[in-house]
Amino acid sequence: TKKGDLELDLVDLYSLANTSIEEISSVAVEKSISINIEPPDNKTDAICDKSKMKKVFQNLLSNAIQYSEPQKEITISFNSIEIPKSETNNTDLGKKALKVSIVDQGIGIKEKELEQVFARFAQSSRTKTGAGGRGLGLSVCYEIINAHSGKIWAESNPKGGAVFNFYLPVNNKKQQLIVQ
């Protein structure tokens, strides 16, 4: 099925995350960073564009690696959530969503910069060392998640580092159509 320029299919995001980790693992190994996925206790299927969602995982993981010190850990977790009523302006979307969190133990993001990190060419003020990229990766993630009627946001990790979360609505009607 097509939605705009999205090629929509039923995709297992857990296995997509695993594939993305395998492809980026050499960079993590160089810095002695371990990437772990918490075994999900829920279904991790979502209707999405597989190649675009892979790009989201790769951008978020390479960011987490880039801003983490050696010997640190990156953790990915999956949760079923209810989308808050304030965020569902579209009634044909289910209220359930699959939430993905990528937690790093890196340099973190200043509280006042959490909103701006998804703007094009935005870079953290903490990357004066030149560790920062061109500032496009997160804006690409933002555009992809938005195109899927999802939401992406950043939080500070209380244990140091950053947490990047996104969710995709789980719309049963659409899933049944595609699965048949």
Q: What descriptors fit this protein?
A:
three-stranded antiparallel β-sheet; 4 helices; globular; disordered C terminus
User: What's the helix-strand series?
Assistant: EEHEEHEEHEEH
Instruction: Tell me the structural class.
Output: alpha+beta
- Number of continuous helical runs: 4
Q: Compute the gyration radius: what is it?
A: 16 Å
Helix content: 25-40%
Please report the total strand number as a whole number: 8
**Sheet with the most strands?**
5 strands, mixed
How far is it from the N-terminal to the C-terminal residue, by CA? 13 Å
* Sequence stretches where pLDDT stays below 50 over 5 or more residues: 126-132, 174-180
Q: Give the overall pLDDT as a whole number.
A: 84
Shape: globular
Order of strands, main sheet, comes to 3-5-6-8-7
Q: Strand share of the residues?
A: 25-35%
Question: What does this protein structure show overall?
Answer:
- It is built from four helices and eight strands, in the order E-E-H-E-E-H-E-E-H-E-E-H.
- With 180 residues, the chain is an alpha+beta fold.
- The strands form two sheets. A five-stranded mixed sheet has the order 3-5-6-8-7. Strands 1-2-4 form a three-stranded antiparallel sheet.
- Helix 1 packs parallel to helix 2 and helix 2 (50-66) runs antiparallel to helix 3 (137-147).
- The longest helix is centred in the N-terminal third of the chain and has 18 residues, at 13-30.
- It is globular and about 40 Å long.
